[in-house]
Amino acid sequence: MACPKVPSGIYVAYIVQMLILLNAGYSVAIGDYFLAVTSFFAFSLTMVPYIVTRNAKICLPWEINLLIAVSLYLHVLGHVGNYYVLFSPYYDKFAHAVSSTTVAVLGFVMVLIVDRFSSLQLTRPMIVLFIVIFTMALGALWEIYEFAFDQFFGTTLQHGNVDTMTDLILDLIGAVIIAALGNIYLRRVPKEQIVSFLVDSTVDDTQASSTDDESGAPTSVHRR
Predict the structure, then answer these.
(1) Distances (CA, A) of 200 to 58, 154, 204
(2) 12: exposed, middle or buried (C-beta count within 10 Å: 0-12, 13-18, 19+)?
């Protein structure tokens, strides 16, 4: 099965991406070039799913594109609109919860695709564990990023040990929720069937042809 046509839902993700660009333009207009660079970088990250879909022939659901765009938009808006301060600490925690959920979903999709094109043969418990570890690892890296910026650029991204630990706890909660849902989903649907909706069938054909070429076997197979 080839990747389906562009779903109508993807236009919601496009709108969120445009909002990120508008915030970048606003930052330039007011002379805050640090926020402008941050906003443009966030927008570039929202383009990664489209690049992966085009070059790797992976059919990511449009909901993933939307989750990534919303997560980054909340981060940008929190700084440009000063929402992190105006609605402290609730906005920060909400944005962090959305981001951790997005990372957990990406971890679930990624581990299924890696398992498909490798010899790992991961079991369901291993996949569930990976989701939690992957989410917590990226959450820890984010806290390191915030700490580094505070130290070197004088920002106030972190507000003490309680703030950092609360963020990590939210990462864990998001990871556990997605891991639990993934576990239920994998009980009902084989992982091979899930991946079949994510990977363009032409990738399998190319991979099979490469295997035949390396083994010296004919590349064309006649089936009855």
Answers:
(1) 6, 47, 7
(2) middle
pLDDT one-digit tens code per residue, 169-194? 999 999 999 999 999 999 999 998 88
Long-range contacts made by residues 30-36, C-beta under 8 angstroms, separation at least 24?
32/80, 35/76, 35/79, 35/80
Dist CA 166 CA 170 (whole Å): 6
Q: Tell me, what DSSP letter sits at residue 103?
A: H
Ranking 94-103, 143-152, 155-164 by mean pLDDT, the lowest is: 155-164
Nearest to 186 by CA among 130, 123, 131: 123
Residue with tokens 């609605």: 87
Token representation of residue 58 = 């992976």
- Paired with 58 in beta bridges are 199
Please say whether the beta carbons of 109 and 53 come within 8 A: no
Q: CA distances (Å), 70 to each of 43, 59, 64, 77, 217, in order?
A: 11, 20, 10, 10, 48
* Mean pLDDT over the full length of the chain: 86
- CA 221 to the chain's CA centroid: 38
Alpha helices in the chain (DSSP H): 10-29, 33-46, 48-56, 62-80, 83-86, 90-116, 124-153, 161-188, 191-196, 201-215
